[in-house]
Specification:
Elements: H1 5-8, E1 16-17, E2 26-32, E3 37-43, H2 49-60, E4 70-74, E5 77-78, H3 86-89, E6 96-101
Parallel strand pairs: 1-3, 2-6
Antiparallel strand pairs: 2-3, 4-5, 4-6
Length: 108
């Protein structure tokens, strides 16, 4: 098996490609509970979290609120420094990020 298990699970469309060809890269999942959907992002460990958040938001909720209204969480904790790299957050191959609204909304 060449991929980690979580990268084999259902996702929307193609992988968001942010890695340079031939360079080191990992694939992470970004889930957005508000739309019940997921994207995979293939990026360099040195890629900034903000770019991953922006690209995932474009794919999952085009035309949504400004990106400042959303948080990206890893292992249940908000990534506070969006200028940090994937590696600095502790993300590894197959890590799952949650992209969700900063303000909690009631379920209807």
């Amino acid at each position: 098996m060449s991929e980690t298990f979580v990268n084999q699970l259902r996702t929307r469309g193609d992988v968001i490609e942010l890695a340079s060809p031939g360079g080191p890269a990992i694939t992470v999942r970004v889930e957005m509970p508000e739309v019940w959907d997921v994207v995979r992002v293939h990026a360099s460990p040195d890629e900034r979290i903000l770019l991953i958040k922006l690209r995932a938001l474009e794919a999952l909720a085009p035309g949504s609120l400004p990106h400042e209204e959303y948080v990206l969480k890893l292992n249940g904790w908000e990534v506070l420094d969006e200028g940090a790299t994937l590696a600095a957050t502790g993300a590894v191959e197959g890590s799952i990020f949650v992209l969700t609204s900063r303000k909690r909304r009631p379920v209807k």
